[in-house]
Amino acid sequence: MAQLMFLNECSHLTGDVHPEIAAQAMSDLIEAILGIKRILPRASLVTSEPLPSLRLGNSYSVAIWLNQAGIARERVRFLLSLGQQAPFRVVRTILGDRDPGVTVYRNAGDVVEGVGLADLYGGVPVSFCREIRWRAPILILEVEQLLEDDERRWSTEIRHVSLITHVETHRDWLVSLRRRDVQNAADLCLNKAELLPRIEFGPRIEGDLKQLQPPAFFQVIRYLDRLNDSVERWDPETRPAPEYPPNTSDESATRKPLCVFPTLGGGTAAFTWHGRYTPTAGRIHFRVEQNPKRAIIGYIGKKLGI
């Protein structure tokens, strides 16, 4: 999966900001991104607008910062070498639209598109730290999603970096993102035990994965990663099933006969729970077991029966 950092557009500095404060905010952001890059050397930065034109208050911009006397040249070179991409929609063009509907993320009532994209694409949201709410290593988001036949709302927490100390807080997670940088089905199957320890593939899944092309392949990996985490957090003694990732549902009674697939030990079983991916109305059908605690994937492909 691509390693991406998304700059939170709601953290951009606004109003009358003293140039020294703006420069310090820029320096703090660079320190945080440098820390991420030490762990994820291939990570690139995605912003709402090209970095040089980004304002740091009414009378200051990144372009001014880049040309300011006294700024360390190596920091300028580092910033310009980030493989920065803008606007946000570029990611959808390159990696495909991972939103199965129309999804809006909010923090404290404000729409946070960049942070939401980090959640959708498994990236790292980064922020300027001037405002106190962006100094937290965890952000709480309210999510609203409109699908063709449904409307959903939920809250979620997402790891977040605006200070170099946050990099250390999230070190294990950032290292796991590096491990999950897989490029094809063979790579995923070879390293599945390490990448997805709570996931088992049914007999047909390697073939299903090989049929997938980007961006669908990377969307499937992202869903499997979330499902793995859901099963890992699950306590079967207190809950009958894991708290599944967003965009997961059970089949209706009339469609359940379509969801019978080969099992690991021979024979067949029903895999009625499923996650969604796009394009082509993709489905990831699975079942969960308590002992050992795991999710078994029975089918990955187009929506059944169409």
Structural description of this entry:
The protein has 306 residues and is α+β, with helices and mostly antiparallel strands. It folds into two domains: 4-177, no CATH class; 183-302, YaeB-like fold. The protein contains eleven helices and 14 strands. The strands form four sheets. Strands 8-14-13-12-9 form a five-stranded mixed beta sheet. Strands 4-3-6-7 form a four-stranded antiparallel beta sheet, covered by helices on one side. A hairpin with a 4-residue loop joins strand 6 (138-146) and strand 7. The longest helix is centred in the N-terminal third of the chain and has 21 residues, at 19-39. It starts with a strand and ends with a strand. 33% of the residues are buried. The model has no long low-confidence stretch (mean pLDDT 89).
Brief overview:
The protein is of the alpha+beta class and 306 residues long. It has helices at 19-39, 62-67, 73-80, 89-95, 113-121, 164-169, 171-179, 185-190, 192-195, 205-210, 216-233; strands at residues 4-7, 44-46, 102-107, 110-111, 124-126, 138-146, 151-159, 199-201, 248-250, 260-262, 268-270, 273-277, 282-290, 293-302.
